[in-house]
Amino acid sequence: MINDKGHTIFVEKYRPTSLKNYIAEEHFKNKLKSYIDQQDIPHLLFCGSAGTGKTTAGKILCKNIECDALFINASDENNVDTIRNKVKTFASSIGFKDLKVVFLDECLDENTLVRILRDGVEQNIVIKNLLDGTDLVKTWNVAESRVEWMPFKLWDKGIQDTLEIELENGEVVICTPDHKWYVEDDNGNPMIVKASQLDKYNHILSP
Known about the structure:
This protein is of the alpha+beta class. Among the domains are: 39 residues, no CATH class; 51 residues, no CATH class. 20% of the residues lie in helices and 28% in strands. It contains four helices and eleven strands; from the N terminus they run αααβαββββββββββ. The protein has a four-stranded antiparallel β-sheet with strand order 4-3-5-6, with no helix packed on it. Strands 10-9-11 form a three-stranded antiparallel β-sheet, with no helix packed on it. The chain has a two-stranded parallel sheet with strand order 1-2. The radius of gyration is 20 Å and the shape is globular. It starts with 9 loop residues before the first helix and ends with a strand. The N terminus is likely disordered.
């Protein structure tokens, strides 16, 4: 019987699982270490060129912090409703740990360079030049441990107004007015409201 796990691509097989083996700038590693030491993590957005360790950093945090983690590859799951439903189901379910983390990988902007297959020819283009329903994007299927060519759709919601929400611990979160937040009503019951309605409530539970 062949063990398919023995054929994992090198980037996954040898991906560091701790900060000890993770190569990055010391100030960045120290910041990650502080989250692990505290066993807590704020909202984080990693950006940078391909191969700089963004995914690895996120996976190290999830592995070394006591949490239930949901991993979503946005290059595979590129339907907004699908992602929203997965996150809502995960967030509302009973977990085994006190903390839940949603890891959304491969969140690309319109100018990100991607490898595509167009009319049988491989080429590199920026996402905003993709042809919907025609071009296929080269991606790694985590569940099946293989490379696949898959359709990709760019969701452009245009320029939107944003709000800055300052939490009690001093953390500032930037979001759209329609972003959903968990709060407590006057009786201490949890409920969901839009960011534009937060000024009516005294206690914010989480975004």
